[in-house]
Automatic annotation (TrEMBL):
<feature type="binding site">
    <location>
        <position position="111"/>
    </location>
    <ligand>
        <name>4-amino-2-methyl-5-(diphosphooxymethyl)pyrimidine</name>
    </ligand>
</feature>
<feature type="binding site">
    <location>
        <position position="168"/>
    </location>
    <ligand>
        <name>2-[(2R,5Z)-2-carboxy-4-methylthiazol-5(2H)-ylidene]ethyl phosphate</name>
    </ligand>
</feature>
<dbReference type="GO" id="GO:0005737">
    <property type="term" value="C:cytoplasm"/>
</dbReference>
<comment type="pathway">
    <text>Cofactor biosynthesis; thiamine diphosphate biosynthesis; thiamine phosphate from 4-amino-2-methyl-5-diphosphomethylpyrimidine and 4-methyl-5-(2-phosphoethyl)-thiazole: step 1/1.</text>
</comment>
<comment type="function">
    <text>Condenses 4-methyl-5-(beta-hydroxyethyl)thiazole monophosphate (THZ-P) and 2-methyl-4-amino-5-hydroxymethyl pyrimidine pyrophosphate (HMP-PP) to form thiamine monophosphate (TMP).</text>
</comment>
<feature type="binding site">
    <location>
        <position position="93"/>
    </location>
    <ligand>
        <name>Mg(2+)</name>
    </ligand>
</feature>
<dbReference type="GO" id="GO:0009228">
    <property type="term" value="P:thiamine biosynthetic process"/>
</dbReference>
<dbReference type="InterPro" id="IPR034291">
    <property type="entry name" value="TMP_synthase"/>
</dbReference>
<protein>
    <recommendedName>
        <fullName>Thiamine-phosphate synthase</fullName>
        <ecNumber>2.5.1.3</ecNumber>
    </recommendedName>
</protein>
<keyword id="KW-0479">Metal-binding</keyword>
<dbReference type="GO" id="GO:0009229">
    <property type="term" value="P:thiamine diphosphate biosynthetic process"/>
</dbReference>
<dbReference type="InterPro" id="IPR022998">
    <property type="entry name" value="ThiamineP_synth_TenI"/>
</dbReference>
<dbReference type="InterPro" id="IPR013785">
    <property type="entry name" value="Aldolase_TIM"/>
</dbReference>
<feature type="binding site">
    <location>
        <position position="74"/>
    </location>
    <ligand>
        <name>Mg(2+)</name>
    </ligand>
</feature>
<comment type="similarity">
    <text>Belongs to the thiamine-phosphate synthase family.</text>
</comment>
<dbReference type="InterPro" id="IPR036206">
    <property type="entry name" value="ThiamineP_synth_sf"/>
</dbReference>
<feature type="binding site">
    <location>
        <position position="141"/>
    </location>
    <ligand>
        <name>4-amino-2-methyl-5-(diphosphooxymethyl)pyrimidine</name>
    </ligand>
</feature>
């Protein structure tokens, strides 16, 4: 088996906490230094555009210095303007096809909830990954859809576009998602709310993914 993390069948996709605490840059660096993280998504739903710009300027170099792709949530235009590595768009986050053209060569991920139809549409449109969720109850956001393992199994059997599983995922419950074929596990609370800190959260998630894979 290859030692290259990029070759691993399932990898960790980290999303920032909804509000960045003081000293977050150091916490992020410690988390990313604790083990493999494929991407970091900046997700600040309540921040003003200037605050998001400042966060990108501070956090993107920390991620990129560690070969972690820096993905912006919700805003394809800002992702292009700030030269982020990509964007994650939900079903209400604007024109997916327009974002695909604007961000040619960059990563475009699309939320598909629990829908095979939305995932096939996203794949045909040129998405680099499709995200399914929520797989478990989450306190990070009000998730109005619930996805089942069979969706991941079907997707990985039929399509080559990578899948991301999201929603309430922890080291304790992630094994079936890995076994079902998820290419990435996206988490907020499992890392940032880990009782021993975010570095321990990254270690625990990677250990659980490796044990399941
Ligand atoms: C990897 C990943 N998957 C799903 C989402 C949810 O996106 P969306 O439905 O647009 O909801 P918000 O995150 O914008 O509240 C995500 N952000 N990342
Ligand atoms: C941002 C997000 N999107 C979801 C979806 O189902 O689309 S669930 C979710 C929150 C993920 O946070 P945690 O790992 O703490 O549950
Ligand atoms: Mg969104």
């Amino acid at each position: 088996m290859s030692d290259d993390p990029a070759e691993a069948p399932c990898r960790l996709y980290l999303i920032t906490p909804p509000v960045l605490p003081a000293g977050f840059a150091d916490r992020l660096a410690a988390a990313l230094d604790a083990g493999d993280v494929a991407c970091l998504q900046l997700r600040l739903k309540d921040a003003a555009p200037d605050e998001v710009r400042r966060a990108i300027e501070t956090l993107m170099p920390i991620a990129q210095a560690r070969d972690v792709a820096f993905i912006l949530n919700d805003d394809a235009v800002l992702a292009a303007e700030m030269d982020c590595d990509g964007v994650h768009l939900g079903q209400s986050d604007g024109d997916h096809a327009g974002a695909r053209m604007l961000l040619a060569g960059k990563i475009l991920g699309i939320t598909c909830h629990d829908s095979r139809h939305l995932a096939m549409k996203a794949g045909e449109m040129g998405a680099d990954y499709v995200a399914f969720g929520a797989f478990f109850p989450t306190t990070t956001k009000e998730a109005s859809h619930r996805a089942e393992l069979g969706l991941l199994e079907w997707w990985s059997d039929v399509f080559t576009v990578p899948s991301v599983a999201i929603g309430g995922i922890t080291a304790a419950n992630c094994a079936p998602l890995v076994e079902a074929g998820a290419d990435f596990l996206a988490v907020v609370g499992a890392v940032w709310n880990h009782p021993e800190g975010p570095a321990a959260g990254v270690r625990a998630m990677n250990a659980a993914i490796a044990a399941a894979g």
